[in-house]
Amino acid sequence: MNISFRRLSASESGPLVTFLTSENWPFHAVSEVDRETAGQWVTEGRFESEENRSFWVADDGAAVGLVRLMDLGDATPLFDLRLRAADRGRGVGAVAVAWLTRYLFEEFPDVRRIEGTTRQDNRAMRRVFVRSGYAKEAHYRDAWPSSDGGVHDAVGYAILRRDWLSGKVTVPQWNDEPVE
């Protein structure tokens, strides 16, 4: 595996639309993206704008995924990761999360924390979060609608700059409910 990252250029709207429409994205709110929707997302600046940056994830030069960084003007940016079905389960996700974490903390000195959310049943992504030093911070019941009309629980993870620098994960204080 020879994973690299390359920023999406403005001239790549065609390949981006093809990438988004050629796969099923089972753990995204829109699991099957049509060309019209993908084109609208590109036009709106969802992938490239002052607040958003996107990067191709490549293995030996071939695009296998896409990293989208969002809310870059905020101290707590978010990210989205899409990997082609054929490239899931090979460790690419862990490499991508390590890369984007380092990129955000090094490129944006005001970033204090990075957040990501996934569906509860996306066990592979949840393992990637934990192995990458992210702590589970939230569990949102029935918060993630799916294209089949169902809803799933969503799970939120984050990494703090201080944890990334120290290599130690500080977990939230979960048992802090006031006693009546």
Automatic annotation (TrEMBL):
<dbReference type="InterPro" id="IPR051908">
    <property type="entry name" value="Ribosomal_N-acetyltransferase"/>
</dbReference>
<dbReference type="InterPro" id="IPR000182">
    <property type="entry name" value="GNAT_dom"/>
</dbReference>
<dbReference type="InterPro" id="IPR016181">
    <property type="entry name" value="Acyl_CoA_acyltransferase"/>
</dbReference>
<dbReference type="GO" id="GO:0016740">
    <property type="term" value="F:transferase activity"/>
</dbReference>
<dbReference type="Pfam" id="PF13302">
    <property type="entry name" value="Acetyltransf_3"/>
</dbReference>
<feature type="domain" description="N-acetyltransferase">
    <location>
        <begin position="17"/>
        <end position="162"/>
    </location>
</feature>
<protein>
    <submittedName>
        <fullName>GNAT family protein</fullName>
        <ecNumber>2.-.-.-</ecNumber>
    </submittedName>
</protein>
<keyword id="KW-0808">Transferase</keyword>
